[in-house]
Amino acid sequence: MQGCHTSSMGGMVGGIDFDQIDALLQNQLVTEQGIELVHAILEGEPLEPKPRIQPGGVRGDYVCPSTGISIRLNHFTLQSALLQELDDPSSKCLVYRGWPTEFGGLRYSVKNGSRTQVDIFRPFVFHVGELWSGFADIFPTSKLKRSVERGSALYVEVDHGHWTSPAITERLSPTGLRYRVLTEKHFGHWYLHNIGILSRYHQPDYKVMDPTACETVVAMVKDRGFMFRRDLIDLQLVCADDLNYLIVTRRVYFPLHSQDVTDMRSSAIFRDQIAHESFKAARAATDGFLSLDTTGKDASGDAKPSGEPDFMQLVSREAWEFAERKLQTLSERVSSWWPGSGPKRVGKLIPPATKALWQSQAERGELLYDSAIFGLIPRWDGRGFRAKRYPESEQLWDEVYLECRLTKRMTLRATHGEFVVRAETRGLPVFSYTTAKARDRECDLSVFVEARDGRAARYAIAGFAKPGTANRLYQTTVPVYFAHIDHTPLPIKIENSVNRRLIKGQIWLSAMIDEATGAKLAWTISFGAPSARSVMTVLFECIRRHGCLPTFIVVDNAPEFDSLVMHSILRLGRANLLWRPPYQPRYGAPVEAANNKITVQSLQMLAGNTVAVKSLYQYSRTFIARNPELMTLTELTAFFTGVFDEVEQEVGSARTGDEPVKDYVARRKAEVGVGYRTPINLNLSVRRICSPPASGGGMRTISDEGYVEVDNLAYFSEDLKRFRRQRVAVHPDLIHPGFVYVYVSAAVGWIDAKSTYADIFEDYSRRELLGVIAELKRGKLRGVNNPVVKARVLAKTVVERERDPARRDELAQKFEQFSNRASALLMTAPDTRNQCNVPPDVEADAMDGDMSGSTAGECLESAGIGRPDRGDGAAAPLGATVPAGDKAGSDAEAGTVDAGGKGSSADQSDRSGEDDDEISVTPSRLSF
């Protein structure tokens, strides 16, 4: 598969012998020149996409499930679908490469033959398979048609929906390799959405919940021919995860191209493809379901099944009598509607067209079931089916609707009249005006919006979305599967929770919005402009809450969304990053709407709101909006927690069908399962990857007492005493102000250090603590240069100024316990998990002014430091709080204060084997 590491030793490529590949290529009539080209591709490095971004496409990265290697995509929807198909074992693909090479001297005519264009050709994927080998490109049909309309002869439509390129085929003719042009017609509507849900079940680490239930379901499906997923889930015959596993492993058949695997109302699993074809034929017929008993004989529409048809078990007595009366009227020349046929029909003559329809139904029943009455039984049990029965007419309606209704703004009656004229000209069936009104209500009148220049984004109407062009991924109904991340400034002023001083600067909210429910999967507050650190805190918060990341994450084109550390976290969660097309915020409508609701509605009545008095802050530093008693960060996070996690979970939305969000999530969890989520353990080693360097380039000198100084505070570790007076790189923890990570050398690796009063600092942001230190420098700490003393004074001040009596007593007890020990006794306890407390549920990621301009990825490059090694040190889940009694007990037993965590030497030895097999991910663009 793609990303399998190549090696010239032994002639192996991804576990496949070069000799085997050469023999396969020779059987496919590939020339010697072509075989040499294949060797160069498999041993070389991939190129960049060309063009970088296709117009209207969503770019992103595809990570191969088997190897973790990333492939850059410039049209995510189509290209990732093709790669998912190649990763399927049934595709008989041995190996493939993304953006393998390029060919110059490609000649084709343009301007309708008026001149010849010489270009460079760079295909999307190179494929070596058992059936064919060569290059493949996949484009939207609209792009290929646009190319033809402009007079280019590069791509030619040879058949309806099938395209080729004579110029590229001629250019590759000396090699004997094939070239294929694919469009969205190669896939069904639901393939990408389905495979995104099911890809996780391909992984070898998935464990079946109930093997007995799986075998029972497989036997039932083979016996009956098909079963609806809704029946299996509702009757609790099998869990959703195991059912998805049966589909992936092909124990049962599911049409990934034509049915939505998450739709419990209509999706079904089948015995085999023949059973599925019989099911489709039955659905297309107006007289009910055909029998799916195809075992041991060929499927034939003329075959007469034995016994009664399957739908007979749903026939009521009234329906049987209704069919008997219809059969009786067929022998009469003139008939009237009988009592019980409806109040509007009784006594009126039956139209000849209706009797002709009944006659055909009776003949069909005689042919299929040896009973005319079987064909006349009404399907009252199947009423409410709204499938579009005439695809060509529906396609014509979409074209007429876009041209007349949306573009020319014609009335619906006139639009339907134009549709009737065109349909009759082409000989297509025509649906009624009532159906046209239903189609008009179904049309999504979402508008394209284009961002204007300026800091305040203003939007203008640019047109309507073409019906039928919506991306299926954006229409998902699966929670924690497809999400958006964005930042918004909060029009509010808050004060420091310790010294009650106004915190200057703009407050930002970074939120991750679930596409299926509109709920906030994660959110954090920061005091600086959006950066890579803001994105990391949102990802960490999502992992803490849900134990995983969404499969697809949509972001805009801001640089903070494309850092190396972000790609590392996404790789751990096997999440795909999607970029919204520029100047089209409608692709991020859920998060844009949520941000507007937060800033306009949620904060409108809070103390410190600056919407109405925003300009006054520019003229008066002492001005305080509305209420002199501003909110603190703790109070603001508590307010958001109540709104997002309690109020919004109890109400419904348009996405959930007015069903409460928490009930909707619980129901979809039972219907779809949770196996599509990749669990992540958010330990200290993961948080260490994203830690930015300290101020001043991040370099510090280890003191004789075994601590390093960051932000005028001391951070201890017993392991640091071995490296006294040595220059090391220090990276403060992104979330917890009481932790720092020290990188000593490549041989030693990382050492975790913590402040003596980390348990006291955990409930405060770094920005708040720095504000208190700046105040103390002008008072108690004037002329004091000892960071240990500064940490003690800071902790004492925090305890004295705490307004909550219960919280103040708890902090005072901790402070008294730590203060009675000499600094020389600070050592590292053997169990870091019982000592290193993690931050509260939602914590701000504010940093000091010297670090505001740095990005999260600079921690990998400062002072020649390589990529951080992964550690095995575990911590409590982000947001967990250790009870005071447990903390005190553990401290008393240890007799020392934990200041660092596990020894780095042990960690390095434990990681030696793991780092060798670690998969690297190359992002599409670095932001630093």
UniProtKB/TrEMBL annotation:
GO terms for biological process: DNA integration. GO terms for molecular function: nucleic acid binding. It comes from the Bacteria. InterPro entries: Integrase_cat-core, RNaseH-like_sf, RNaseH_sf. SUPFAM superfamilies: Ribonuclease H-like. Residues 844-928 are annotated as: Disordered. Residues 475-668 form the Integrase catalytic domain. Gene3D superfamilies: Ribonuclease H-like superfamily/Ribonuclease H. PROSITE patterns: INTEGRASE. This is Mu transposase, C-terminal. It comes from Paraburkholderia tuberum.
